[in-house]
Amino acid sequence: MLARERLREDGAAVAERLGQRGADPAQVRRWVELDEGWRRAVQQAEELKHRRNEASKQIGQAKARGEDAAAEIAAVGELKRGIEKLDDETATLHAEMLTIEQSLPNLAHDSVPVGADEAANREESRVGEPPRFDFQAQAHWDLGPALGILDFERGAKLAGARFTTYLGLGARLERALASWMLDLHTEEHGYLEVLPPLLVNEDSMFGSGQLPKFAQDAFRVEGHGHYLIPTSEVPLANLHRDEVIEEDRLPLRYTSWTPCFRAEAGSYGKDVRGLIRQHQFQKVELVQYAHPDHSYEALEEMRSHAERVLQLLELPYRVVCLSTGDMGFAAAKTYDLEVWLPGQDAYREISSVSNCEAFQARRANLKFRPADGGRPRFVHTLNGSGLAVGRTLIALLENYQQADGSVTVPEVLRPYLGGVDRIG
Question: Which among 30, 40, 277, 369 is annotated as catalytic?
Answer without folding.
Answer: 277
